[in-house]
Each structure stands twice: as C-alpha cells, then as structure tokens.
Specification:
2 copies of one chain form a homodimer. Helices cover about 75% and strands about 0% of the residues of chain A. Chain A has helices at about 5-20, 25-30, 35-45, 45-75, 75-95, 105-110, 115-135, 140-165, 165-180. Chain A binds a DNA duplex through α3.
DNA sequence: GTCTATACACTGATAGAC
DNA sequence: GTCTATCAGTGTATAGAC
C-alpha cells in the first residue's frame, strides 16, 4: 500500500543518494516513480526543497534504526563498530559504487545554499553520532570518538566511490577499532 | 600577469569548492572572472567538464604542496598531523563555513557521472595519501592510517560546514593524533 | 486528489564577426 | 585570441480541467 507520497519520497531518496541534489531533476523523479507532476506539488507545496527535506529525514531515520540494531548485535563496542563499517563497505561495492552515504552529497551541496536542508542534515548527523556515543559510553572520549566515526565513514564512502574499491572503508574500520580498543 | 586561462581556472576552483559541480554554471564563471564565453571554449574546447578537470588538478597540486610543507615544519608525526587538521578547522570557520574540502563535493557529484573527473579526483586523493603515509613511514600501519586521515578530514569538513562549528575537525585532529601516538 | 499543458528562466554549447 | 548573439534543451514551477 505505497501511497503516492511515499513513492515520491522513496524514489527521491534513491536519486539523491546516487546523483546529489542539483543533478536530480523533478522531471526524473516523477518519471521514474510514475507519479504525475501535479501530485508532487499537491503533496509538497514547497517544491523540490521540501521534497528533499522529507526524503533526507526519512532515510536518516532508517539509517539511525540500522545503526542501533546492528550495534546491539555484538557486545564489544570496538568489534560491533568495526563490523558495522565493514558492512557499509560491502554495500557500497554491491551498488557498483554508485550509492552509499545517503545524505553526504546533499549535506555538502546545500551547506552554502539551503539553510533548512543544511539544518536537517545537521540534525540527522547528530542523531547518528549519539547512537555511536551511547555504544561507547564506557569510554572517556565517547563523544569525540563518535564524531571521528561519523566523519571517517562519510569520508571513507567518498574514497570508495571515487576509487571504485572497498579498501578505504575496510581500513577505516580497522583503524577505528584500533583506536577504540586503545 | 594572470592570463585569461588562469583566471578561469582560479575562479572555477573557488566556485566549485563553495557550490559544487552542478550548481556552478558557466555563465557565473565567466561573469565573476570577467572573461567572455568565447574565450572559455577557446581555452577549454571540452567545455565545462574539461575546465573542471583542470581546476581540480590545479587545486589538488596546491593542497599537496601545502600538506608537504606543513608536515615538514614539525618533527613528530602525530603532532604535525594534529596541527595540520586544526589549521583546516580554522580555515573552514574563517570562510563562514562556505568553503573547505576543495574537491570533496566534486568527487561525490561526479562519482557516478563523469569518469574522467572521478579519475582525476582519485589521483589527487592518492597523492595526498602518499604525502601523509611518508610522514608516517616509521609506523607499521602507515598506509592504513593515511587513508583514515584523508577520510576523516573529508568527513570532518562536511560535519563542520553542516553544523557551522569547527568542533568536529578539532575532535578529528585529537583522535587521529591519539591513534598515531598509540 | 490527479493529471496535462505550459510559462519562463537558465543551462551548456556554438557560429561567426572582429 | 576575443567577443556577441543565439541555439536547442532542460530546469522548476504553475494554471486549470477533471
């Protein structure tokens, strides 16, 4: 029971992750999601920016859940986070290096453009960071390490997609684990 | 003695860093650099893509020199790299969080678009990584740590620009230094 | 709520005079 | 080498019938 609104949001998430904000046109979104343009402006009167905000919020929530669930599966924080990052590396490779980092491109493109999109990305990054910090709550530098984790994952995705190799994220996984273990 | 060609490349570097590839139009480049459009296609017959490749190569070389010079100033690798990253944090703040990471946005936007731009970014990231790895040559995991450094700087810039705070890169600097010192 | 047709600005690119 | 005028295509957004 996918509503028109949901179809638009999901297709927008997919295209934004692969192409970014400015390279993704509304015409492509309505064509690939098979929804008429009139419906888009009915559901999202704010146009492209409002649609992107909803899409980024949606995918941010999904990723937050995945972080929480995956980290809960392994007791040792260093090992849990290492496996989580290695899993991202595999997924980036599986996408043909076309996806990975669902909000990274948007965050950069809109950092000096749309303030509402920038704030949405900032909120999501904060939520992700909190999830990692909670897993590291025994560590004296939990918050600081959580920031490094988010930063190195985002940067690692860039390096993997640019080099068409999963090695960068695998190295990030190993080094982050080494840092946590001390 | 700035030639027309150099003016175009330098202005393109500036705009690509702040806005990204797709948000930067050729009209804006020629207007702000005060060079006519005819000259652009005379110097860069390949159009926007060729101009961007030249711009990315140019700024990549400048940054490589800055990495080499700055790292040579302090003997201890952990301290040298820490200060280098803290310096980036200050520069990002100084730009009003509108600049920083001169090729990051381009690397992401063109990862699934232009193959020649993607390869150019890949080459530059490799050169930067080698510069850090050489400074860490005494460390058994020099290459792996150099990858983490590039990734966490690129990601740290994203977090700083998105949150309008220099804290993320300062934390990255501290954690990377902790990792190197062991 | 859904859909089509269209307005209007702007994009990258080119032609041709100078 | 430089500059202007202009092309064809696409972008976001809107109007109005159904």
């Amino acid at each position: 029971m996918a509503t028109t609104r949901d179809q638009l949001i999901e297709k927008t998430c997919e295209l934004l992750e692969m192409q970014g904000y400015h390279a993704t046109g509304l015409n492509q979104i309505i064509k690939e999601s098979e929804t008429p343009k009139g419906s888009l402006y009915y559901h999202f009167p704010g146009g492209k920016e409002e649609l992107a905000i909803e899409a980024v919020s949606y995918v941010g929530r999904i990723v937050l859940n995945r972080i929480t669930e995956n980290l809960a599966e392994i007791d040792d924080p260093a090992e849990a986070i290492k496996m989580f990052i290695r899993n991202i590396a595999v997924n980036v490779e599986r996408s043909g290096y076309r996806a990975g980092g669902p909000i990274t491109t948007i965050a950069l493109e809109t950092a000096s453009g749309s303030d509402s999109l920038r704030e949405t990305c900032h909120r999501i990054y904060s939520e992700w960071q909190t999830a990692f910090a909670e897993k590291l709550s025994d560590h004296p530098r939990a918050e600081s390490i959580a920031t490094l984790i988010i930063a190195s994952i985002e940067g690692g995705v860039i390096l993997c997609r640019t080099s068409r190799s999963r090695t960068p994220l695998e190295r990030v996984a190993d080094e982050v684990a080494a840092l946590i273990a001390g």
